[in-house]
Amino acid sequence: xxxxxxxxLAELFKMFGDSSRVRILYALFDGELNVSDLxxxxxxxxxxxxxxxxxxxxxxxxxxxxxxxxxxxxLADDHVRIIMDAGLEHVTEE
Amino acid sequence: xxxxxxxxLAELFKMFGDSSRVRILYALFDGELNVSDLxxxxxxxxxxxxxxxxxxxxxxxxxxxxxxxxxxxxLADDHVRIIMDAGLEHVTEE
DNA sequence: TGAACATATGAACAGTTATTCATCTGTTCA
DNA sequence: TGAACAGATGAATAACTGTTCATATGTTCA
Lengths: 94, 94
Known about the structure:
The structure is a homodimer of 94-residue chains. The first copy, chain A, has one domain: Arc Repressor Mutant, subunit A (Orthogonal Bundle). A three-stranded antiparallel β-sheet of chain A has the order 1-3-2. In chain A, helix 3 crosses helix 4. The model of chain A has no long low-confidence stretch (mean pLDDT 96). Chain A has five helices and three strands, in the order ααβααββα. The first copy, chain A, is of the alpha+beta class and 94 residues long. Chain B binds a DNA duplex (30 and 30 nucleotides) through helix 4.
């Protein structure tokens, strides 16, 4: 196994290794949301949400689209769901 | 979704969010290894490996068994592999 | 028992990171 | 154009984390 792949893998999991980001991603499971929707839903400041969205976007886990003044964010692809589901199964197993 | 579950999920992914731990886990894919095997294979100090193994053990991702002076570590269950495979698919996709 | 080996662990340090605050950019609409 | 709204961003701070170093614990065997 290439060392670089394992490095990238750790970088990927780092994205999911913060509860704010996990909550954001989970909130996007049902579809796209804009920044203020997310702030409200998660009781986070607009700035904190925006900072985390930038990280998630850099990591290609979410994508953004502008609609007027708002930016709507959604999950970038199915992998996000697959990875989170794999983790959820571990966490919720009894 | 229970907030606590998402918190636990982030805690789980934190385990995978460090390249030393990911390398250790991947090294254990082929079967159990003791601490010095791991140190040698990964070019890490014994102490660093041991510290990370403690974290992985607390997170129930690895289990340990003593054999004489050595401690043999192995993956705790299939979820570890499943989660890493899910991540690897994302990372190695082109 | 005591030497040698394998691993664990605590303290300290350096590097990283999430949040907050203040401010800036971008968009709409009157 | 300018006010109002939505979001982005840089700097600062506090908290967290991985590694190293030194040392302790645990095991074997002569």
